[in-house]
């Protein structure tokens, strides 16, 4: 409406007709990278349809792609922390630019630390998270004289 009212540009109403869901069975980080790839593709198409760009392909080093990468890295870390107990192993930015990968022993130590955090979380805190999810989803309904959940 802003473009139509303020700039006098014609607007053609469009609506989303579906949802893209991805899930890598063994890697949360790959799921985030796949979502990022789909997000870039959708953004490219949206910018063309809106008349902002004439070509759908964005330069991987452009500001808009860098902002999108930062958003996906942050979201990926939050989801990985909630689900896996550590930040993401492989970040979207490492798929786009080799300069973002930490080389040598420092990078290996960071990967090892992330693996240790995930192992600890899976071994010692998953039960508590699962119990909380069961309570939230209504699978566990507390009664007065039952064994406590925790």
Automatic annotation (TrEMBL):
This is SAC domain-containing protein. Its main location: membrane. GO terms for cellular component: endomembrane system. One of its GO terms (biological process) is phosphatidylinositol dephosphorylation. The keyword Metal-binding does not apply. Keywords: Hydrolase, Membrane. GO terms for molecular function: phosphatidylinositol-3,5-bisphosphate 5-phosphatase activity. It is found in: Endomembrane system. The keyword Hydrolase applies. InterPro entries: Fig4-like, SAC_dom. Residues 1-85 form the SAC domain.
């Amino acid at each position: 409406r802003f473009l139509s009212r303020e700039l006098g540009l014609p607007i053609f109403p469009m609506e989303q007709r579906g949802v893209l869901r991805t899930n890598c069975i063994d890697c949360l980080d790959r799921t985030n990278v796949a979502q990022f790839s789909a997000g870039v593709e959708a953004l490219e198409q949206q910018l063309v349809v809106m008349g902002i760009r004439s070509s759908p392909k964005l330069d991987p080093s452009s500001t808009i792609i860098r902002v999108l990468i930062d958003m996906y890295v942050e979201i990926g870390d939050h989801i990985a922390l909630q689900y896996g107990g550590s930040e993401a192993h492989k970040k979207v930015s490492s798929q786009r630019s080799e300069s973002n990968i930490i080389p040598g022993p420092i990078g290996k130590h960071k990967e090892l630390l992330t693996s240790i955090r995930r192992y600890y979380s899976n071994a010692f805190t998953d039960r508590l998270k699962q119990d909380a999810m069961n309570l939230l989803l209504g699978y566990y309904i507390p009664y007065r004289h039952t064994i406590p959940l925790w």
